[in-house]
Amino acid sequence: MADPTAEHDRDDRGDRDALRDWLLGLVAEHVQLPREDIASHVPLSDYGLDSVYALSVAAEIEDRFGIDVDPTMMWDNPTIDALVEAVSKELAQGT
Fold this sequence. Notes:
Elements: H1 4-31, H2 51-65, H3 72-76, H4 80-93
Pfam families: PP-binding
Protein name: Acyl carrier protein
Domain Carrier: 17-91
């Protein structure tokens, strides 16, 4: 018999992978670099993502997922990997 917890974990990882992929594209677009040049573990400030762009990314996260994103989320979670975790937690709390 299949373990329902294992299935949920796979779905969660898939959701996180999709979120990471979307964020990579979004950041690449904002900083005008090829997507493959953006590493999810590197601080976004290393790519020149300034406060204006950070607020824009936060607004796009809000629009896409229908959650409230505190502007400090971008500073408290300075990498795409950290943002994936933070947004995933927000989405889980909304369910």
